[in-house]
Design goal:
Layout (H helix, E strand, L loop, with lengths): L1 H11 L7 E3 L7 H11 L7 E3 L7 H11 L7 E3 L6 H11 L8 E3 L6 H12 L7 E3 L7 H11 L7 E3 L6 H11 L8 E3 L6 H12 L7 E3 L6 H12 L7 E3 L7 H11 L7 E3 L6 H12 L7 E3 L10 H16 L3
Parallel strand pairs: 1-2, 2-3, 3-4, 4-5, 5-6, 6-7, 7-8, 8-9, 9-10, 10-11
Helix pairs in contact: 1-2, 2-3, 3-4, 4-5, 5-6, 6-7, 7-8, 8-9, 9-10, 10-11, 11-12
């Protein structure tokens, strides 16, 4: 406790040596969070605060939110793996309506739900500072995703949105896809494990045909199947921005792989493609090898766990040799 009191004193005294504070996994509850928040109200030196893996609930988050209304120094706040819930997220959202310093907010694993996501979405309509928002594993469904999508239509600041391990479904993905038709800021969208299915992938693919900002798209664990992969492949024929694409664990078979291979014959932007643990098998592997004969851009292809038989070992060696060739071209 003495060390904690020393930290509080340094915060209150604006100790210039204290610009980053790591209090992760320190059994901090609401009372300690409230004490930190009180110090933050006048602190002008701390820029990064780690409070993840603690026991901070809504009351602690509300105190921190109150501090953010006056604090002008903190730019990065980690609150993941706590229990702030919807009420905590709502308080933070309210603070961000006036806060002009925070650029990164991490709220992973906090059970904020659709209500919390909707509050944050409303704030992002006017907030012009936040660039990164992490909302992994928060029981956010289609309604929360739709609210965030509506915000993305006008928000011109957010560059990274992480929605890993939620339940946005096809409806949520379709809403985000519609927003990305006009959004010109978002560069990274993380939708891993969100049950978007082929319909969600098809909507995102249609947007990729015209979107000129998104560089990284995570769609692993989404059951998009061949239909989703084929739609994305079609988009890759014209998209000139996406460099990194995650499609692992998606039940993609030979037809999906062949479509992606066809796209790689002309796409000159994609550098990283994850296809592990699908059902691509020999025909898909052969198509990818054929495409890589001429593709000089792809520098990483993660392909393991795809039911490729021992008869196609030579094909896999070909793929590896082409990737190595492309990597050498960088040097």
């Amino acid at each position: 406790m003495f060390e904690f009191q020393t930290i509080l004193r340094k915060l209150k005294e604006n100790d210039p040596t204290l610009t980053m504070l790591d209090m992760d996994a320190n059994q901090i509850g609401d009372a300690d969070a409230q004490a930190i928040a009180e110090a933050l109200k006048t602190n002008a030196t701390l820029t990064t605060l780690y409070l993840s893996y603690n026991q901070i609930g809504a009351a602690g988050a509300q105190a921190i939110a109150e501090a953010l209304k006056t604090n002008t120094a903190l730019t990065t706040l980690y609150l993941s793996y706590n229990q702030i819930g919807a009420a905590g997220a709502q308080a933070l959202a309210e603070a961000l309506k006036t806060n002009t310093a925070l650029t990164m907010l991490d709220l992973r694993f906090n059970v904020i739900g659709d209500v919390g996501a909707q509050a944050l979405a409303e704030t992002l309509k006017t907030n012009a500072t936040l660039t990164k928002l992490h909302l992994y594993n928060n029981q956010i469904g289609a309604a929360g995703a739709q609210a965030l999508a509506e915000t993305l239509k006008t928000n011109a600041t957010l560059t990274k949105l992480h929605l890993y391990n939620n339940q946005i479904g096809a409806a949520g993905a379709q809403a985000l896809a519609e927003a990305l038709k006009t959004n010109a800021t978002l560069t990274k969208l993380h939708l891993y494990n969100n049950q978007i299915g082929a319909a969600g992938a098809q909507a995102l693919a249609e947007t990729m045909k015209t979107n000129a900002t998104l560089t990284t798209l995570y769609l692993s664990y989404n059951h998009i199947g061949d239909a989703g992969a084929q739609a994305i492949a079609e988009a890759l024929k014209t998209n000139a921005t996406l460099t990194t694409l995650y499609l692992s664990y998606n039940q993609i078979g030979a037809a999906g792989a062949q479509a992606l291979a066809e796209a790689l014959k002309t796409n000159a932007t994609l550098t990283t493609l994850y296809l592990y643990n699908n059902q691509i098998c020999d025909a898909g592997a052969k198509a990818l090898a054929e495409a890589l004969k001429t593709n000089a851009t792809l520098k990483w292809l993660c392909f393991y766990g795809n039911e490729v038989s021992s008869e196609s070992l030579e094909t896999l060696e070909e793929i590896e040799s082409y990737i190595e060739r492309n990597l050498k071209d960088d040097y």
